[in-house]
Amino acid sequence: MSKPRGLGKKKVAQKPVAPLFNEDELLGLISTSYKLSDNAANDELKNNNYTKNTPFPHITLNNFFQEEFLEQLKTELLQTQYWEKNNDLYQFLQTKDLQDSVRPNIVKLKTLLYGQHFRSFIEKVTGLEQRNLRLRSDKIDMSGACYRDTNYLLCHDDELEGRRIAYIIYMVPRDWSKEDGGSLDLFNVDDNLQPENITTSLQPVWNSITFFEVSPTSYHQVSQVLRDEELCEDRISLSGWYYCDVPVERPTPHVESNLEMNDPITTTQSVSTLLREWISESYFQEDNLNKIIKLFARNSSINLVDFLRKDKLKQITEELTRQVGIGGFKTVGPANRRHYGKWTESENESNVISQLTHLFRSKEFAEFLGQVTKYDILKQNVKCRRFANNDYTLAHDISKDQVRLDVVLTVLDNKVVSSDPSHGGAIVYMNEDEELLSVLPVDNSLSIVMRDVGVMQFVKFVNHKAPFARFDWCCAYEIPEIEQGDDDDDEEWEDDDDDEIPEGWVEETDE
């Protein structure tokens, strides 16, 4: 059993602490190596390559605080209430804004960091002073963060109105190493000012402070923490921002091209022959099809398991493994949108992956979907993807304003039937307010979801504990605009709850 770590304890009432401290007392919290009142020391730090560090200005100052103070500060953070933060972009624990905290050492730190002396120090080190820019003293933004095994914060730029300088104070175990993960990774950008590659990784170090300038290109992430949770030693940090009244100049936002949609492809085989060559026989039985149609009409989503014939599944699995070995899957980005392997299809390729891809693009499969969902298929887009450790997509969807059918066939390697939800890899549907549906990775399953306008989709980050690589055929099918009242027939199935679920498939239910 893990030892208690102090996170999430019942909040203890604190006596108010007056945030008035002697300047010498505050400066005494900083290591004697950094003499903030010494102009010579400031000049030395100012020239410490902050503006020259790539891919964007940043600096890390080690052994920055007095040890005793930092130990006491960490103790107070561990006694503070934390809440889980979990969405498409991140998964970790965080305190509320500490602006109103009355814990003595947190108050001291706030008073120090946002006081005139320290703000002047930051302005000198970062070169803001030379640009006649001043950091605000009335805007305090500070919170504590705890990253445990498999936690992460994916690629983003931190840009928000008024933010100018970001800072992070690390209180990790003293023996934290590269193998424990949790690095602060910095990205360079391409010609479209989108994140391209990680060019700098800063390892968290006990009693260090890192700060960098926030801009439209300050793309960074906290890499996945790999330190065994049983060690009960988390990646603890305290972070926040300095604000400036002078706004950062922003370029025109980059807009990705719309998803390329094509007409369904005509093949030379009959519908019956082509589909039966690939799809399990149970999906052609009239009683089963009728029940599938009813359940989809009721829920607007369904998950069909054991979808491919076993002989075809075996061929597919073997070819996917071979393609990985020869580099057939190329990583695609940008990292603030997605990170996964996409199968690169050759024009002359005729392997089983290409054949299955063509099936999903065919008019015959469009007719099968039309029969199941009662929607006409107008256009299609199909791609084969691989999600392994550190892969994901974010809820940035250029097609969220279009109604469509999402169809995803999932194949898992290593003969895994299904995955633990805590490993990631689920396809999640959400609107602006809440999560609507989560489709877990199940081997040889086909999910069909009618995605309405305003609904976004993402694939949850796959962490290092996942015992599989998840392959899928991600298919988008354009359907006619749904007129008001088109769903009125749903009530026809409300009382029809005694339908037995046929062997070989399961329905998807909303969360």
Overview of the molecule:
Mean pLDDT is 87; it is low at 488-495, 500-504 and 507-511. Helix 6 (271-278) packs across helix 10 (363-373). The two termini are 31 Å apart. The protein is α+β, with helices and mostly antiparallel strands. A hairpin with a 5-residue loop joins strand 7 and strand 8 (195-202). It has helices at residues 23-27, 39-46, 67-78, 104-113, 116-126, 271-278, 286-299, 310-325, 352-361, 363-373, and strands at residues 58-62, 83-86, 90-94, 141-147, 152-156, 163-170, 184-189, 195-202, 208-213, 220-222, 235-243, 301-305, 329-332, 338-343, 379-387, 392-393, 404-412, 427-430, 435-439, 445-451, 456-459, 470-478. The strands form 3 sheets. Strands 1, 2, 3, 4, 5, 6, 7, 8, 9, 10 and 11 form an 11-stranded antiparallel beta sheet that branches. Strands 12, 13, 14, 15, 16, 17, 20 and 22 form an 8-stranded antiparallel beta sheet that branches. A 3-stranded antiparallel beta sheet has the order 19-18-21, with no helix packed on it. Keywords: Dioxygenase, Oxidoreductase, Vitamin C.
Q: Which secondary structure elements does this structure contain, and how are they paired or packed?
A:
Blueprint: H1 23-27, H2 39-46, E1 58-62, H3 67-78, E2 83-86, E3 90-94, H4 104-113, H5 116-126, E4 141-147, E5 152-156, E6 163-170, E7 184-189, E8 195-202, E9 208-213, E10 220-222, E11 235-243, H6 271-278, H7 286-299, E12 301-305, H8 310-325, E13 329-332, E14 338-343, H9 352-361, H10 363-373, E15 379-387, E16 392-393, E17 404-412, E18 427-430, E19 435-439, E20 445-451, E21 456-459, E22 470-478
Antiparallel strand pairs: 1-9, 2-3, 3-4, 3-5, 4-11, 5-10, 6-9, 6-11, 7-8, 7-10, 12-20, 13-14, 14-15, 14-16, 15-22, 17-20, 17-22, 18-19, 18-21
